[in-house]
Amino acid sequence: MVPTLGNGKICYLELPTRDVRESAAFYHNVFGWEMRTRGDGAIAFDDAVGEVSGAFTTRRKAVQEVGLLVYVMVFDMEATLRLVIENGGEIVQPVGADLPEITARIKDKTGNILGLYQEPVAKQPKEE
């Protein structure tokens, strides 16, 4: 799948981590992100829809205060929050704080804070 190209599109993320493999497993298990090894040997990722890619970096500290906040779209908030906990993350803002929006905030295993967002009537696309 070729990502959508467009001026101003967010296309790449660098996620701070203390342990690249640990973070790769967390994001794969929780969000279904695909991991790959780049030519330089770094572990990179592609989001679940192939629109955003990125890599993990051990050169920066985790984003532990809310400033710029990245939200990950999910189809089932409750199931995703269970996966966060099962994979060593934590919930730092439960569902309900941003009503009527369906949002939550989590910390990954390194301590990065991310937002989760669910469309009110989001349904998974039918598999063909």
Automatic annotation (TrEMBL):
It comes from the Bacteria. This is Glyoxalase. Residues 9-119 form the VOC domain. Signal peptide: none annotated. It comes from Chitinophaga parva. Coiled coil: none annotated. It holds the Pfam family Glyoxalase. InterPro entries: Anthracycline_SecMetBiosynth, Glyas_Bleomycin-R_OHBP_Dase, Glyas_Fos-R_dOase_dom, VOC_core.
